[in-house]
What we know:
By secondary structure, this protein is of the alpha+beta class. It is built from five helices and twelve strands. This is DUF2993 domain-containing protein.
Amino acid sequence: MEAETATASRRQWIAKVLSSALRLWLKTQVEQIADLQVEVQSGDRRLLSGVIQQVSLSAQQVVYQGLHLTQLNLVAANIRVNLGQVLRGKPLRILEPIPITGSVCIQVTDLNASLQTPLLAEAVTAFLGTLLNQPPHPLEQGVQPLSIAAVADLSLRQLQVEIAGDRVILQGLLNNAGEEIPVELETGLTLRSPQELQLTHLRWLAAPGLDPGVSRMQSRHFSIDLGSEVELHQLRLESGVIHCQAKLTVIP
């Protein structure tokens, strides 16, 4: 009985130490995080061998590599860590890739904050340039193609996104060969596969070469590859908010 009590006490102590170490490790991985809650769950043998059976965490206002996440609730399983070093006061290290599942909520204000990072702004500019080079919708035969400079010469500022029901509206000021022109694009956003987002029923509301008050449909849908380490299982748009259920693999 005393041995069982001692083992339970040691497990609780290790779980507490690991919980604190995980909190510190998580804070080093992000630029900002608030209301972080971490819960460690593991059996005695696995925990004592340095494997955390499950970690549940929740947080708000997370900024990771410039991406602003309003709220997240995640579960990670079978996390192998350097337990011996942690118990001696060393920083925690993740020793193997870990699968993570959970839900993420992004409000439009945080989405717009994410778009201010150079990496995302450049990606959006290149994407818009690619779209502008596409022909009009087949039902709009006879319409003149939109006129832009080379994609590499484009720049975009005052980039903003709105979420209106299940539609996304992207707008900004495009510098096209020295001329600054408003651009506005409306699109649906769905899952084509767990690794691909699909933009559907794209319509230009403002663009270079497009008369004011005239809209133009794109001729096809466009897909965005999320990479092999991410799986989106659910994507839902509400006014001002994106909700998604996802699975990803974290490579230490």
